[in-house]
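Entry:
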Amino acid sequence: MTNATKPATIQVYLHEVFGFKNPIEGFEKPIRIAAERHPFCPEVNRDYVFSEDMVARLLGSYAARENIMLIGEKGTGKSSMVEQFCARLNLPLMVINGGPGLDETHLMGCKTIESGTVKSVDGDLSYCIRHGIPVLIDEIATIKPSVLVSINDVLNGNKVITLKHHGIDPTMTPAELARKDGSMVIQRHPEFRLFATDNTGGKVGKDPRYAGVATQNSAVRSRFTTFKVGFLKPAQELKALVGATGGKLPIDTAKSMVEFAIRVRANFELGEMYDTVSFRELQRWARKTLVYGNVHTAFVDAIYTAMEESDQVVAAEIFDLAIGSKLELPNEYASTAQSFLAELDQGGINWDAA
């Protein structure tokens, strides 16, 4: 590629790009990033709050072209961290959602018939390897372990990737095969990177909250540098929560919501609750509070109803403590079969009220 065809770049300071006041240790000097946003570049969320320490470590692994795995509880921002990391650096990102139906052809392509002739096509992953587009495999533990083992050459960081589906024309010489466009191998683009997220780290576990995930081959796990993503610190979560509503959520209300989340998470860590509360759920609670004008009903619809019944009992107590008033449940929680039976036995049902 000649200088005339190279994409234009601009010089930036990383701490300014990620919203920090002081330079990031080890990255004090300015770097060059693309001047124009790639068509696959995620949208920048200016209200997203980064952890300075985590960003520094991610930058180090990214510069070293390592595969990066982010693990942590639901709603800690694993996927959004990758998306906003790329967004701030004007990098493209292709997201591949994991699942048991995802196979090697989805990742690395296959042969197909087009206009009566056989044609080789790329999968999402092989396309990005060719063109230098970073990839995020979201919920990687939901993919069958054998599928990931089949792309070991990608996970290993090999510069030449074998496309097993292409097959080899036995009449071609090795030199001809290497020159053929869309041959059985592709060159890894230097800008390609691989990210993955997972709730379990791919390890053996019996947590029923993550039913459907697979225990990943330890050799696959060893090919990633793994970072644990925790919940934001209270002040950071408060800032992010208010920011998520465009500054419309009152600070005192937001503080109470964050306090609720902290207390639930602490109970979860002690094994006293089945599940925790994610930042995603807090955002939903905040948005519904603004729409409903009622923090109680908004909480019920955003968080409470989806909880296990045993968790609901504890959550109601924590709500009272954090919000400062007893949780008021909507009418449907009072309209039970037992309540109707009591009315029936007492002759108090008004059959003409419908």
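The CA atoms of residues 340 and 349 lie 8 Å apart.
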